[in-house]
Design goal:
Elements (H helix, E strand, L loop, with lengths): L4 H10 L7 E4 L2 H11 L3 E5 L12 E4 L2 H11 L3 E2 L2 E2 L3 E5 L3 E12 L4 E7 L6 H7 L4 E6 L7 H10 L7 H17 L2 E12 L9 E4 L3 E4 L11 H4 L6 H8 L3 E4 L4 E5 L2 H17 L8 E4 L6 H13 L5 E8 L4 H15 L5 E7 L2 H11 L4 E3 L3 H17 L1
Helix pairs in contact: 2-3, 5-6, 9-13, 10-11, 11-12
Bound molecules: guanosine-5'-diphosphate and manganese (II) ion.
The site of guanosine-5'-diphosphate has 18 residues, from β2, β7 and β10.
Length: about 400
Protein backbone atom coordinates (compact mmCIF):
# COMPACT_ATOMS: atom_id res chain seq x y z
CA UNK A 1 0.00 0.00 0.00
CA UNK A 2 1.44 3.34 -1.06
CA UNK A 3 0.91 6.16 1.40
CA UNK A 4 0.29 9.76 0.49
CA UNK A 5 3.05 12.17 1.47
CA UNK A 6 0.96 13.65 4.30
CA UNK A 7 0.49 10.13 5.73
CA UNK A 8 4.13 9.16 5.29
CA UNK A 9 5.09 12.34 7.14
CA UNK A 10 3.17 11.08 10.19
CA UNK A 11 5.31 7.96 10.32
CA UNK A 12 8.54 9.95 9.92
CA UNK A 13 7.44 12.43 12.58
CA UNK A 14 6.75 9.55 14.99
CA UNK A 15 10.43 8.65 14.69
CA UNK A 16 11.49 12.23 15.37
CA UNK A 17 12.72 13.05 11.85
CA UNK A 18 12.69 16.80 11.20
CA UNK A 19 9.95 17.93 8.80
CA UNK A 20 8.67 21.34 7.73
CA UNK A 21 5.39 22.29 9.39
CA UNK A 22 2.47 21.28 7.21
CA UNK A 23 -1.28 20.81 7.03
CA UNK A 24 -3.26 18.50 4.80
CA UNK A 25 -6.45 20.02 3.36
CA UNK A 26 -8.96 19.12 0.66
CA UNK A 27 -10.37 22.46 -0.53
CA UNK A 28 -8.87 25.68 -1.92
CA UNK A 29 -10.35 27.78 0.92
CA UNK A 30 -8.88 25.48 3.54
CA UNK A 31 -5.55 25.75 1.73
CA UNK A 32 -5.67 29.55 2.00
CA UNK A 33 -6.47 29.33 5.72
CA UNK A 34 -3.72 26.77 6.32
CA UNK A 35 -1.25 28.95 4.41
CA UNK A 36 -2.15 31.94 6.60
CA UNK A 37 -1.42 29.86 9.71
CA UNK A 38 1.85 28.49 8.34
CA UNK A 39 3.14 31.76 6.91
CA UNK A 40 4.76 32.75 3.62
CA UNK A 41 6.32 31.63 1.45
CA UNK A 42 4.75 28.17 1.68
CA UNK A 43 4.56 25.24 -0.72
CA UNK A 44 1.28 23.84 -2.04
CA UNK A 45 1.81 20.16 -2.80
CA UNK A 46 -0.68 17.93 -4.59
CA UNK A 47 -1.19 14.64 -2.76
CA UNK A 48 -1.08 11.66 -5.12
CA UNK A 49 0.55 8.28 -4.63
CA UNK A 50 3.10 8.84 -7.39
CA UNK A 51 6.43 10.60 -7.66
CA UNK A 52 7.46 13.42 -10.01
CA UNK A 53 4.68 15.66 -8.77
CA UNK A 54 7.01 18.62 -9.03
CA UNK A 55 7.66 18.00 -12.74
CA UNK A 56 3.91 17.58 -13.28
CA UNK A 57 3.28 21.07 -11.86
CA UNK A 58 1.68 19.84 -8.64
CA UNK A 59 4.26 21.40 -6.27
CA UNK A 60 4.25 25.22 -6.24
CA UNK A 61 5.32 28.04 -3.99
CA UNK A 62 2.71 30.53 -2.72
CA UNK A 63 3.59 34.02 -1.42
CA UNK A 64 0.19 35.09 -0.11
CA UNK A 65 -3.27 33.72 0.73
CA UNK A 66 -4.77 34.47 -2.68
CA UNK A 67 -1.95 32.70 -4.44
CA UNK A 68 -2.28 29.70 -2.09
CA UNK A 69 -5.99 29.48 -2.90
CA UNK A 70 -5.43 29.78 -6.67
CA UNK A 71 -2.66 27.18 -6.70
CA UNK A 72 -4.72 24.74 -4.64
CA UNK A 73 -7.68 25.31 -6.97
CA UNK A 74 -5.45 24.42 -9.92
CA UNK A 75 -3.74 21.42 -8.29
CA UNK A 76 -6.74 19.74 -6.59
CA UNK A 77 -8.44 18.50 -9.79
CA UNK A 78 -5.18 17.18 -11.27
CA UNK A 79 -4.49 13.60 -12.15
CA UNK A 80 -0.77 12.73 -12.32
CA UNK A 81 0.00 9.79 -14.61
CA UNK A 82 -3.40 8.33 -13.78
CA UNK A 83 -3.21 9.01 -10.03
CA UNK A 84 -5.83 11.45 -8.77
CA UNK A 85 -4.78 14.23 -6.45
CA UNK A 86 -6.83 13.74 -3.26
CA UNK A 87 -5.89 16.91 -1.41
CA UNK A 88 -2.98 19.28 -0.90
CA UNK A 89 -0.32 19.57 1.74
CA UNK A 90 0.38 23.17 2.64
CA UNK A 91 3.91 23.22 4.03
CA UNK A 92 6.39 25.74 5.25
CA UNK A 93 8.77 26.58 2.37
CA UNK A 94 12.38 26.07 3.31
CA UNK A 95 15.46 27.68 1.87
CA UNK A 96 17.21 24.72 0.21
CA UNK A 97 21.02 24.72 0.19
CA UNK A 98 21.44 21.17 -1.03
CA UNK A 99 19.26 18.16 -1.88
CA UNK A 100 20.18 14.59 -0.89
CA UNK A 101 18.36 11.34 -1.63
CA UNK A 102 18.04 8.55 0.96
CA UNK A 103 15.91 5.43 0.88
CA UNK A 104 15.52 2.03 2.50
CA UNK A 105 13.72 -0.65 0.53
CA UNK A 106 13.18 -4.36 0.17
CA UNK A 107 15.48 -5.81 -2.48
CA UNK A 108 13.49 -8.71 -3.89
CA UNK A 109 16.32 -10.10 -6.00
CA UNK A 110 18.85 -10.41 -3.19
CA UNK A 111 16.13 -10.99 -0.56
CA UNK A 112 17.47 -8.41 1.81
CA UNK A 113 17.24 -4.68 2.44
CA UNK A 114 18.88 -1.90 0.50
CA UNK A 115 19.93 1.44 1.85
CA UNK A 116 20.48 3.84 -1.06
CA UNK A 117 21.82 7.35 -0.77
CA UNK A 118 23.26 10.03 -2.97
CA UNK A 119 24.30 13.62 -2.59
CA UNK A 120 22.60 14.34 -5.95
CA UNK A 121 18.99 14.24 -4.74
CA UNK A 122 16.01 16.20 -5.99
CA UNK A 123 13.61 15.81 -8.88
CA UNK A 124 16.28 14.65 -11.35
CA UNK A 125 17.63 11.88 -9.13
CA UNK A 126 16.89 9.00 -11.54
CA UNK A 127 18.51 10.83 -14.45
CA UNK A 128 21.60 11.73 -12.38
CA UNK A 129 21.87 8.14 -11.14
CA UNK A 130 21.74 6.85 -14.72
CA UNK A 131 24.45 9.19 -15.92
CA UNK A 132 26.57 8.89 -12.83
CA UNK A 133 25.83 5.56 -11.13
CA UNK A 134 28.88 5.65 -8.87
CA UNK A 135 27.39 8.67 -7.09
CA UNK A 136 24.70 6.41 -5.62
CA UNK A 137 25.90 4.45 -2.60
CA UNK A 138 24.26 1.18 -1.72
CA UNK A 139 24.41 -0.86 1.46
CA UNK A 140 22.81 -4.27 1.81
CA UNK A 141 21.37 -5.25 5.15
CA UNK A 142 20.85 -8.99 5.57
CA UNK A 143 17.25 -9.91 6.26
CA UNK A 144 17.92 -10.90 9.86
CA UNK A 145 20.54 -8.24 10.57
CA UNK A 146 20.16 -4.83 12.04
CA UNK A 147 21.40 -1.48 10.78
CA UNK A 148 23.59 0.00 13.49
CA UNK A 149 25.12 3.35 14.22
CA UNK A 150 28.54 2.62 12.81
CA UNK A 151 27.03 1.34 9.53
CA UNK A 152 24.82 4.42 9.36
CA UNK A 153 27.78 6.71 9.97
CA UNK A 154 29.98 5.10 7.35
CA UNK A 155 27.09 5.20 4.88
CA UNK A 156 26.55 8.91 5.60
CA UNK A 157 30.25 9.62 5.25
CA UNK A 158 30.54 7.68 1.99
CA UNK A 159 27.87 9.57 0.09
CA UNK A 160 29.42 12.95 0.65
CA UNK A 161 27.29 14.59 3.29
CA UNK A 162 29.19 17.65 4.33
CA UNK A 163 31.38 16.83 7.25
CA UNK A 164 29.21 18.72 9.70
CA UNK A 165 26.12 16.83 8.56
CA UNK A 166 27.38 13.31 9.01
CA UNK A 167 26.09 12.92 12.56
CA UNK A 168 22.65 14.19 11.67
CA UNK A 169 22.52 12.18 8.44
CA UNK A 170 23.45 8.98 10.31
CA UNK A 171 20.82 9.73 12.91
CA UNK A 172 18.18 10.22 10.19
CA UNK A 173 19.20 6.96 8.46
CA UNK A 174 18.78 5.08 11.75
CA UNK A 175 15.39 6.65 12.38
CA UNK A 176 14.34 5.73 8.83
CA UNK A 177 15.40 2.15 9.53
CA UNK A 178 13.26 2.12 12.67
CA UNK A 179 10.36 3.54 10.68
CA UNK A 180 10.91 0.85 8.02
CA UNK A 181 11.01 -2.12 10.42
CA UNK A 182 8.40 -1.01 12.95
CA UNK A 183 5.84 -0.35 10.23
CA UNK A 184 6.61 -3.36 8.02
CA UNK A 185 7.38 -1.00 5.15
CA UNK A 186 8.75 -2.07 1.78
CA UNK A 187 10.00 1.46 1.01
CA UNK A 188 10.89 4.52 3.07
CA UNK A 189 12.27 7.26 0.82
CA UNK A 190 13.16 10.87 1.52
CA UNK A 191 13.87 12.94 -1.59
CA UNK A 192 14.89 15.57 -1.05
CA UNK A 193 16.48 15.24 2.34
CA UNK A 194 17.40 18.89 2.22
CA UNK A 195 20.12 20.90 3.82
CA UNK A 196 18.27 24.06 4.79
CA UNK A 197 19.01 27.33 6.48
CA UNK A 198 20.69 30.68 5.98
CA UNK A 199 23.80 30.26 3.77
CA UNK A 200 25.65 32.87 5.82
CA UNK A 201 24.81 31.46 9.24
CA UNK A 202 26.39 28.09 9.91
CA UNK A 203 24.39 27.53 13.11
CA UNK A 204 21.08 27.83 11.23
CA UNK A 205 21.81 24.92 8.92
CA UNK A 206 20.27 21.48 9.35
CA UNK A 207 18.83 18.51 7.44
CA UNK A 208 15.08 18.32 6.91
CA UNK A 209 12.81 15.84 5.08
CA UNK A 210 11.04 17.90 2.41
CA UNK A 211 9.27 14.91 0.86
CA UNK A 212 8.29 11.47 2.13
CA UNK A 213 7.37 8.35 0.27
CA UNK A 214 6.44 5.18 2.15
CA UNK A 215 4.99 1.88 0.92
CA UNK A 216 3.67 -0.61 3.47
CA UNK A 217 3.62 -4.37 3.05
CA UNK A 218 -0.04 -5.31 2.58
CA UNK A 219 0.63 -8.80 3.93
CA UNK A 220 1.51 -7.27 7.31
CA UNK A 221 -1.67 -5.18 7.61
CA UNK A 222 -3.07 -7.56 10.23
CA UNK A 223 -0.24 -6.58 12.56
CA UNK A 224 -1.22 -2.93 12.32
CA UNK A 225 -4.96 -3.00 12.77
CA UNK A 226 -5.29 -3.08 8.98
CA UNK A 227 -3.68 0.38 8.87
CA UNK A 228 -7.15 1.73 9.43
CA UNK A 229 -5.72 5.16 10.22
CA UNK A 230 -4.52 5.37 6.61
CA UNK A 231 -7.42 3.67 4.87
CA UNK A 232 -10.36 5.31 6.69
CA UNK A 233 -10.37 8.36 4.45
CA UNK A 234 -14.05 8.07 3.54
CA UNK A 235 -13.29 8.06 -0.19
CA UNK A 236 -13.71 4.40 -0.90
CA UNK A 237 -15.40 2.37 -3.55
CA UNK A 238 -18.43 0.74 -1.86
CA UNK A 239 -17.98 -2.51 -3.82
CA UNK A 240 -14.32 -2.75 -2.83
CA UNK A 241 -15.26 -2.03 0.79
CA UNK A 242 -17.80 -4.85 0.89
CA UNK A 243 -15.43 -7.26 -0.86
CA UNK A 244 -12.68 -6.41 1.61
CA UNK A 245 -15.00 -7.04 4.55
CA UNK A 246 -15.69 -10.49 3.08
CA UNK A 247 -11.97 -11.13 2.66
CA UNK A 248 -12.09 -11.14 -1.16
CA UNK A 249 -9.39 -9.80 -3.48
CA UNK A 250 -11.54 -7.49 -5.60
CA UNK A 251 -10.78 -4.42 -7.71
CA UNK A 252 -13.62 -2.43 -9.26
CA UNK A 253 -12.94 -1.64 -12.95
CA UNK A 254 -16.27 -0.17 -14.11
CA UNK A 255 -16.88 -2.27 -17.26
CA UNK A 256 -19.77 -4.62 -18.08
CA UNK A 257 -18.37 -8.17 -17.68
CA UNK A 258 -17.87 -9.41 -14.11
CA UNK A 259 -14.74 -11.59 -13.93
CA UNK A 260 -14.16 -14.23 -11.25
CA UNK A 261 -11.22 -16.63 -11.25
CA UNK A 262 -8.68 -18.33 -9.04
CA UNK A 263 -5.16 -17.00 -8.96
CA UNK A 264 -4.16 -13.41 -9.76
CA UNK A 265 -2.41 -14.36 -13.02
CA UNK A 266 -5.38 -16.25 -14.38
CA UNK A 267 -7.77 -13.42 -13.46
CA UNK A 268 -5.48 -10.88 -15.14
CA UNK A 269 -5.38 -12.95 -18.33
CA UNK A 270 -9.16 -13.22 -18.16
CA UNK A 271 -9.43 -9.42 -17.97
CA UNK A 272 -7.21 -9.14 -21.06
CA UNK A 273 -9.29 -11.77 -22.87
CA UNK A 274 -12.53 -9.87 -22.12
CA UNK A 275 -11.07 -6.52 -23.23
CA UNK A 276 -9.66 -8.18 -26.35
CA UNK A 277 -13.03 -9.72 -27.16
CA UNK A 278 -14.84 -6.40 -26.66
CA UNK A 279 -12.37 -4.75 -29.00
CA UNK A 280 -12.44 -7.38 -31.74
CA UNK A 281 -16.25 -7.52 -31.60
CA UNK A 282 -16.27 -3.74 -31.97
CA UNK A 283 -18.44 -3.21 -28.88
CA UNK A 284 -15.81 -1.85 -26.50
CA UNK A 285 -17.12 -4.12 -23.75
CA UNK A 286 -14.71 -4.20 -20.80
CA UNK A 287 -14.24 -6.10 -17.55
CA UNK A 288 -16.28 -4.82 -14.59
CA UNK A 289 -13.88 -6.06 -11.96
CA UNK A 290 -10.98 -8.22 -10.92
CA UNK A 291 -11.93 -10.91 -8.40
CA UNK A 292 -9.51 -13.62 -7.32
CA UNK A 293 -11.17 -16.30 -5.20
CA UNK A 294 -7.80 -17.89 -4.39
CA UNK A 295 -7.25 -21.56 -3.66
CA UNK A 296 -9.74 -23.97 -2.15
CA UNK A 297 -12.76 -21.80 -2.95
CA UNK A 298 -15.82 -23.08 -1.12
CA UNK A 299 -19.47 -22.69 -2.08
CA UNK A 300 -19.79 -19.81 0.37
CA UNK A 301 -16.83 -17.97 -1.21
CA UNK A 302 -18.47 -18.37 -4.63
CA UNK A 303 -21.76 -17.05 -3.20
CA UNK A 304 -20.03 -14.02 -1.67
CA UNK A 305 -18.11 -13.40 -4.90
CA UNK A 306 -21.14 -13.58 -7.14
CA UNK A 307 -23.16 -11.42 -4.79
CA UNK A 308 -20.54 -8.65 -4.96
CA UNK A 309 -20.13 -8.89 -8.74
CA UNK A 310 -23.89 -9.01 -9.41
CA UNK A 311 -24.61 -6.08 -7.09
CA UNK A 312 -22.66 -3.83 -9.50
CA UNK A 313 -25.42 -2.22 -11.61
CA UNK A 314 -23.11 -1.97 -14.64
CA UNK A 315 -22.57 -5.73 -14.84
CA UNK A 316 -24.35 -7.42 -17.78
CA UNK A 317 -22.64 -10.83 -17.78
CA UNK A 318 -20.16 -12.83 -15.70
CA UNK A 319 -17.14 -14.86 -16.74
CA UNK A 320 -15.99 -17.49 -14.25
CA UNK A 321 -12.58 -18.87 -15.16
CA UNK A 322 -11.24 -21.54 -12.82
CA UNK A 323 -8.19 -23.73 -13.11
CA UNK A 324 -8.70 -26.57 -10.65
CA UNK A 325 -5.58 -27.21 -8.61
CA UNK A 326 -6.19 -27.25 -4.89
CA UNK A 327 -9.61 -25.99 -5.86
CA UNK A 328 -11.81 -28.74 -7.27
CA UNK A 329 -13.95 -27.62 -10.22
CA UNK A 330 -16.68 -29.90 -8.89
CA UNK A 331 -16.88 -27.88 -5.65
CA UNK A 332 -16.82 -24.61 -7.60
CA UNK A 333 -19.68 -25.85 -9.82
CA UNK A 334 -21.75 -26.68 -6.76
CA UNK A 335 -20.90 -23.27 -5.34
CA UNK A 336 -22.02 -21.54 -8.53
CA UNK A 337 -25.37 -23.36 -8.55
CA UNK A 338 -26.09 -22.68 -4.90
CA UNK A 339 -25.06 -19.02 -5.30
CA UNK A 340 -27.25 -18.51 -8.38
CA UNK A 341 -30.10 -20.11 -6.46
CA UNK A 342 -29.59 -18.11 -3.29
CA UNK A 343 -29.23 -14.83 -5.19
CA UNK A 344 -32.06 -15.66 -7.60
CA UNK A 345 -29.80 -14.45 -10.40
CA UNK A 346 -30.82 -14.36 -14.07
CA UNK A 347 -27.61 -12.80 -15.33
CA UNK A 348 -25.79 -14.74 -18.09
CA UNK A 349 -22.85 -16.62 -16.55
CA UNK A 350 -20.16 -18.23 -18.73
CA UNK A 351 -18.02 -20.83 -17.01
CA UNK A 352 -14.68 -22.21 -18.13
CA UNK A 353 -13.10 -25.00 -16.09
CA UNK A 354 -9.79 -26.74 -16.52
CA UNK A 355 -7.68 -28.96 -14.25
CA UNK A 356 -8.81 -30.81 -11.13
CA UNK A 357 -12.26 -32.40 -11.69
CA UNK A 358 -13.04 -30.07 -14.60
CA UNK A 359 -15.22 -32.58 -16.43
CA UNK A 360 -17.13 -33.42 -13.23
CA UNK A 361 -17.73 -29.71 -12.66
CA UNK A 362 -18.92 -29.11 -16.21
CA UNK A 363 -21.21 -32.15 -15.98
CA UNK A 364 -22.82 -30.78 -12.80
CA UNK A 365 -23.51 -27.45 -14.53
CA UNK A 366 -24.86 -29.29 -17.60
CA UNK A 367 -27.24 -31.38 -15.54
CA UNK A 368 -28.59 -28.29 -13.81
CA UNK A 369 -29.70 -27.03 -17.28
CA UNK A 370 -30.03 -23.45 -16.08
CA UNK A 371 -30.55 -21.33 -19.23
CA UNK A 372 -28.44 -18.54 -17.76
CA UNK A 373 -25.33 -20.71 -17.27
CA UNK A 374 -23.18 -21.66 -20.29
CA UNK A 375 -19.98 -23.63 -20.25
CA UNK A 376 -17.00 -23.37 -22.55
CA UNK A 377 -13.70 -25.25 -22.67
CA UNK A 378 -11.29 -22.41 -23.57
CA UNK A 379 -10.62 -19.01 -22.01
CA UNK A 380 -10.66 -17.00 -25.28
CA UNK A 381 -13.95 -18.50 -26.37
CA UNK A 382 -15.49 -18.07 -22.91
CA UNK A 383 -14.39 -14.42 -22.83
CA UNK A 384 -15.87 -13.85 -26.30
CA UNK A 385 -19.16 -15.43 -25.18
CA UNK A 386 -19.24 -13.28 -22.03
CA UNK A 387 -18.58 -10.11 -24.05
CA UNK A 388 -21.36 -10.99 -26.52
CA UNK A 389 -23.74 -11.88 -23.71
CA UNK A 390 -23.13 -8.50 -22.07
CA UNK A 391 -24.18 -6.66 -25.23
CA UNK A 392 -27.23 -8.85 -25.69
CA UNK A 393 -28.27 -8.43 -22.07
CA UNK A 394 -27.99 -4.68 -22.47
CA UNK A 395 -30.42 -4.72 -25.41
CA UNK A 396 -33.10 -6.41 -23.30
P1 LIG B 1 8.02 15.05 -6.06
O1 LIG B 1 8.30 15.79 -7.33
O2 LIG B 1 6.75 14.26 -6.16
O3 LIG B 1 9.17 14.22 -5.59
O4 LIG B 1 7.72 16.17 -4.93
P2 LIG B 1 8.70 16.89 -3.87
O5 LIG B 1 7.96 17.02 -2.60
O6 LIG B 1 10.02 16.21 -3.79
O7 LIG B 1 8.87 18.33 -4.47
C1 LIG B 1 9.54 18.56 -5.69
C2 LIG B 1 10.60 19.61 -5.55
O8 LIG B 1 10.02 20.81 -5.06
C3 LIG B 1 11.68 19.27 -4.53
O9 LIG B 1 12.68 18.46 -5.08
C4 LIG B 1 12.19 20.65 -4.18
O10 LIG B 1 13.17 21.06 -5.11
C5 LIG B 1 10.96 21.53 -4.33
N1 LIG B 1 10.48 21.83 -2.97
C6 LIG B 1 9.71 21.06 -2.16
N2 LIG B 1 9.52 21.64 -0.96
C7 LIG B 1 10.23 22.81 -1.00
C8 LIG B 1 10.48 23.88 -0.08
O11 LIG B 1 10.04 23.89 1.07
N3 LIG B 1 11.25 24.89 -0.52
C9 LIG B 1 11.77 24.95 -1.78
N4 LIG B 1 12.51 25.98 -2.14
N5 LIG B 1 11.57 23.97 -2.67
C10 LIG B 1 10.81 22.92 -2.30
MN1 LIG C 1 10.39 14.09 -4.00
Amino acid sequence: MDLYEYQARELLAEQGIALPRGEYVTTADEAADAAARIGFPCVIKGQATIGHRGQAGAVKVAHNEGEARDLARRILPMSIHGHDVNGVLVAEAKNILHEYYVSISVDRSSRDFDVLATANGGTEVEEVARRNPESVKRLHIEALDDFDESAARSMAASIGFYHADIDQAADILLRMWRCFTENDATLVEINPLAKIGDPDDESSKSLCALDAKISLDGNAAFRHDGWSRFTDTGRHDPFEERAKALGLHYVHLHGQVGVIGNGAGLVMSSLDAVSGAGESQGTGVKPANFLDIGGGASASVMRDSLSIVLSDPQVRSVLINVYGGITSCRVVAEGILSAVDALDSHMPIIVRFDGNEASEGLAILDRASNPCISVCPTMEKAAAMAAEAAVEEDRK
